[in-house]
Amino acid sequence: MQEHHAASFEMTQSQANLLIHLLSGLLRKTLKRLGELPERNEYRIMHILKSCDDVLIDGVERPIQRPQASDLQKACYSGKKNS
Questions:
Q1: Measured torsion, CA atoms of residues 42, 44, 49, 55, in degrees rounded to the nearest 10
Q2: Looking at the whole model, is its pTM more than 0.70?
Q3: Could you tell me the residue range of the domain that residue 40 belongs to?
Q4: Which of 7, 18, 19, 58 has the fewest C-beta atoms lying within 10 Å of its C-beta?
């Protein structure tokens, strides 16, 4: 990804790395100051959701390591096929 960002902005990968780390820190501080950081406390989330009529939940799928044993793999199989 850093190579792509560097090429897009005509800079080296090391310059892109430096700017990514610098700007991500500034972004986090700004979001914290504005009270816009993602909430991580489940009880606070439940309290907030009680006052909302419509909720849009955005999440990220994370890969998991499947077990090597075939009988244990079945428990982890979602039934979806890769396309």
A1: -60
A2: no
A3: 1-49
A4: 58
